[in-house]
Amino acid sequence: MQRIRGDREDVFSHGFICPKGSTLKQLEADPDRLRAPQIRTDDGWLDATWDEAFTLIGERLAPIIDEHGSNAVGVYMGNPNIHNLSGILYNQVFLRALRTKNIFSASTVDQMPKHLSSGLMFGHPDLIPVPDIDRTDYLLMLGADPYESNGSLATAPDWPGRLEAIKERGGRVVVVDPRRSKTAANATEHLVIRPGTDALFLAAIAATLVEENLTAPGPGFYEGFDRAAAAVVPFTPERVAATTRIDADIIRRIARELAAAGSAVVYGRVGTSTVRHGTLSSWLIDLINALTGNLDRPGGAMFSEPASGRPRKPRGFQTGRWSSRVRGLPEVRGELPASVMAEEITTPGEGQIKAMVVVAGNPVASTPNADRLDDALGQLDFMVSIDLYRNETSRHAHVILPATSPLQRTHYDLAFTGLSLRNVANYSPAIFPNEVGMEEWEILCKLAAIVAGQGSDVDAAAVDDFAFTTYLAHMVDDKLSPIHGRDAGEILTMIGDRRGPERFLDLMLRAGPYGDRFGEVSDGLTLAKLETAPHGIDFGPLQPRLPEALCTPTGIVDLAPQQILDDLPNLEATIDAKTDGNYLLVGRRHLRSNNSWMHNIDVLVKGRDRCTLLIHPDDAANLEIDNGQLAEVASATGKIVATAELTEDIMVGVVSLPHGWGHDREGMATSVATARPGVNSNILSDENDLDPLSGNATLNAIPVTVSAAG
Ligand SMILES: Nc1nc2c(c(=O)[nH]1)N[C@H]1C(S)=C(S)[C@@H](COP(=O)(O)OP(=O)(O)OC[C@H]3O[C@@H](n4cnc5c(=O)[nH]c(N)nc54)[C@H](O)[C@@H]3O)O[C@H]1N2
Ligand SMILES: Nc1nc2c(c(=O)[nH]1)N[C@H]1C(S)=C(S)[C@@H](COP(=O)(O)OP(=O)(O)OC[C@H]3O[C@@H](n4cnc5c(=O)[nH]c(N)nc54)[C@H](O)[C@@H]3O)O[C@H]1N2
Ligand SMILES: [Mo]
Fold first, then answer.
1. DSSP of 588-629
2. pLDDT digit string (tens) for 269-292?
3. Which of 200, 323, 518, 709 lies 20 to 30 Å from 178 when distance is taken between CA atoms?
4. pTM exceeds 0.90
5. Across-strand partners of 302?
6. Could you give the 3-state DSSP secondary structure of residue 453?
7. Which residue has the CA at smallest separation from atom 45 of ligand 2?
8. 8 A C-beta contact, residue 286 and residue 121
C-alpha cells in the first residue's frame, strides 16, 4: 500500500479524512495486533489454530450453559461493532442462539438515554433526530466537542468546517460546556455550565418558552403538549441559575433566540448523556426542538432515511421486560447497564454470570469502577474475547479470537447512515486479504452453534444460511415490510451467490426506501449497483419524515412520556442540594485518540502527554499544586495520580481527565501503549451512580477530592 488519503470525489466526505483514518496503515502493520487465536495456559499465551480454539470453547462454554443455564453467560459488545458489518449483523445471530438476559454494551456508557427518550417519544429507540447543521441558523450545542470527536449520533465529514459555515452565513453557534474546548473556543458564544446540570438549564429554557408564549403552534401529530408544558414550568431560569452557574437573563435570552431564529436546533452529546439525568436532558432537547417548531424541518432536528431501511414496529417502546439479578435494574433496549457487570459476576446464586464473551469491547478501560470489574473478570470460570489486541480486558480471556483489521474487510455503515446529516450510501471492498483466516461474522456463527448446543464442528456457512433464511422469512411475513407477501425462494435466487454480511446488506438495500424491491422498481438500489459507485451514491439532503416514520402505537409524537416526567421531581431536588466542597470530574476527547484502543499506534500517541488532569490555576493555587506536578484524585470508588495541567480553559471547581488510558495492567501485549500508559479515569467512576431511567453510567460530574501527590 502507498498511503491513505481522502477521496475528493466521495459524495459525502469530498476528501475529508480523520488523522486516525490515515493511520490505519500503521494499525495494519502493528506487530502487537493479533493474527492467530490465542489460548491462555499455565505457561503463558500460546498461538492456536482456529479448530483448537473452537474446540476448547465448546468444551468449556457448553457445560456452563448445561449446568447453569444461558444466563450464566454474559456478553459485552463494544463500540467498534457499530462500525463493522459483521458485528452489527452477526452479534444478533449469536445472541439469538444464546438467549441470555445478561447482555451489556458500550451503549450504557454512552447514548442509552437518547435511545430511551427516542423510544418513548417516537416509538423506536433508533429513531434519533440529528441536527441539520448544514441548513440551520442557530445551533445550541451541549456537552459535545466535535472539533475533537467529529460529531456523534450525527454523522458528517468535517464537522468543524460545517460549524464554521453556520457562522459564515450569519448564524450562531452557542456551546454549553464546563470547559473551553476547541469547539467552545470557535463558537459564537460559550456558556460555562456546572457539570451535571444541563437538564436544569434545558428545563429552564423550555419553561421560558412556555411562560413567555414563545412556542410555535404544533403540527397535528403531537400529543402531551400541555402536560410537558406544565411539567417544565416550575424550572424557571431564576430558580436554576445558581445551580447551573448560568445567569437567568442569559437562559431567557437563549430561549428567545431559539424561538426567534429562522431555524434553530438544540443538540447534546456525551456531556448531557453520561450524567445522572441523561434521559431528562435527551428528552428536553427534543422537546425544545418541538416547542420551537424545529422538529422535523430543515435547519432543525431531522430524521435520516437510510438506504438499508428502518425497523417499523408501531408497537411502542417498553423497558423493564426483565431486570438485573442483584440490583434489580431494568432492561432497556434489550440490555442491562454495563455498571452491573461486576456484581453479576461476583455475587453467588442462581443466575450468576460464570462466563463472558466480549466482542470488540474494552470494558476495563471504559466502564465504571474499572478496578472492581478487572477483579471480577479474573474470577470467571471462562471468558472469550474477539479483539485486535490482548489488552486490559482481553488479557482475562481464556481464548482470544483475532478480528480482521478494518482494511481487511468490506465496509458499509449500517448504523451511521441512520444518523447521517445527508442521505448517502457508500460501500467499500476489503483492501487486503484477510490474514487472520476467519471473518468476524464466521466467528460469531461458530460461537452461535456452540452456545446453541450444536457443537464446535458446525460450519459457519450453515449457521449463516439458517440466520439469513429466518430473517428473510420474517421480512416477507411482516405486513409492514416493503417485500411483504413476496416469494422468499424467488428473492433468494435474485440475491444469488452472496453470503455473509453482503447477503443481508443486499436484501436490506433492495427492500429499503431507494431499493429495486427485487424487480418492482426499475433502476432501484442494489448492492451490485452500489459496488459500481466507488465514491458512493447521494440521495440528497434530509427530508421531513413525520408522522410517517413514527413507530408509536398512536402514530403521533408523545411530548410528555410519563416514565420521563416521573424523574422530574428528582431533578428538582438537585436545585437546592448542598454541594460538599468536592471537585467535579469531567472527561474529554482528543483528535488523535479513539476511546481506549488506538494508543498502540506510535504516530498517534507520540508527543506530549495527553492524559493530564486539567485544573484551573485558582484551584491549583488553593491546593498548592504546580503545573506539571502530580495530583491525586480520589472518588467514592478509587484514586489515581495524574500530572496536573493548569489552564484557565476549565471552570473553577472542575477537573478534567480523558478516558481510555491506564495501559499498564499486567499481562497486556500492547508495547507502545504500555510504554505511555496514562491512568484509567474509570477507576474513579462509580457503578452505583446511574441515570435511573436508562441505567446509563455517570461518567461526567463525578464528585472527587484533589490533592498534591507525593
Ligand atoms: N470516563 C469515561 N468513560 C467512557 C467515556 C467517557 O467519555 N468517559 N466514553 C464512553 C463511550 S462514548 C464509549 S463508546 C465507550 C467505549 O467502550 P468500549 O467499546 O468498551 O471500548 P473501546 O475502547 O472502544 O474498545 C474497543 C475494543 O475493540 C477492539 N476492536 C477494535 N476494532 C475491532 C473490530 O473490528 N473487531 C473486534 N472484534 N475488536 C475490535 C479494540 O482493540 C478494543 O479492545 O467508552 C465509554 N467510556
Ligand atoms: N478523536 C476522537 N473522536 C471520537 C472518539 C474518541 O475517543 N476520540 N470517540 C467517539 C465516540 S465513541 C463518541 S460517543 C463521540 C463523542 O463525541 P462528543 O460527545 O462530541 O465527545 P467529547 O469530546 O467527549 O465531548 C464531551 C464534552 O462534554 C463536556 N462536558 C463534560 N461534562 C459536561 C456536562 O455536565 N455538561 C456539559 N454541557 N458538558 C459537559 C466535556 O468538557 C467535553 O467537551 O466521539 C467519537 N469520536
Ligand atoms: Mo461512544
1. ---TT--TTSSTT-HHHH-SS----EEE-HHHHHHHT--TT-
2. 999 999 999 999 999 999 999 999
3. 709
4. yes
5. 130
6. coil
7. 149
8. yes
Nearest alpha carbon to residue 416 among 20, 82, 702, 163: 82
Say if CB 391 and CB 505 are below 8 A apart: no
Task: Supply the pLDDT for residue 8.
Answer: 86
111 Cα–ligand 1 center, Å: 13
Q: Is the pLDDT of residue 1 over 60?
A: no
Cis upstream peptide for 547 (omega within 30°): yes
Cell of 314: 408501531
What is the rounded CA–CA span in Å between residue 219 and residue 271? Answer: 31
Task: Tell me, using a 6 A CB cutoff, whether residue 686 lines ligand 1.
Answer: no
- Ligand 3 centroid–CA 110 distance in Å is 5
Q: 203, 240 in Cβ contact below 8 A?
A: yes
Cell 402531551 belongs to 224
CA separation for the pair 445, 91 (Å, rounded): 9
Ligand 1: residue whose CA is nearest its atom 46: 366
Q: Which of 33, 76, 79 to mutate to test the pocket of ligand 1 (most atoms within 8 A of CB)?
A: 79
**The ligand 2 atom nearest the CA atom of 142:** 38
DSSP 42: T
CA of 123 to the centre of ligand 2 (A): 27
Q: Are 677 and 661 contacting, i.e. CB atoms less than 8 angstroms apart? A: yes
d(CA 199, CA 187): 21
